[in-house]
What does this fold into?
Amino acid sequence: HIVDTVLYFEGGGNSEYRLLRAVKNRFGSTNEIGIFEMRDTGLVDVPDASRLFLSERTEEAGSIIVPTVEGTRPLLVEVQALVAQTPYVPPRRTSDSVDIKRIQLLLAVLEKRAGYVFANQDVYVNIIGGLRLDETACDLPVCLAMASSLLDLPVPEKTLAIGEVGLGGEIRSVPHLE
It folds into this structure.
């Protein structure tokens, strides 16, 4: 091995928080993250990242809390969706936080199985704090956020959702629920 560890240092610009992500580690686990705050004295560890990601949450339509695991670190993060009518054909589906193909699949399930119409709607999905969610356990909260925004109905504040959504519209169990 020439490289024992590959690390990505994410964040910057106007953000005071930085993510240190391990994507390759010869002697340990990958997909681990460290969350740091940039101060005058340098980088300082953020021990309670969930509070950081939820600190400015408002009870608006299109927002829900999702428990997720980054490496071995459990976090609570906010998923936001904005669904808005569009004059464009085809409508836009945009996200830097969730795989766009997964969003398209979930939109198809919501249309076919739940009867919602997204064909004339732009859909934007964002995870607060700059995290990227790749696990299928986030399917259900992404669906709830998109439906909430479409209907302009807020998800109740204390609602927490987790689960993979199958093509039949069923909610499937996910690993690491404990």
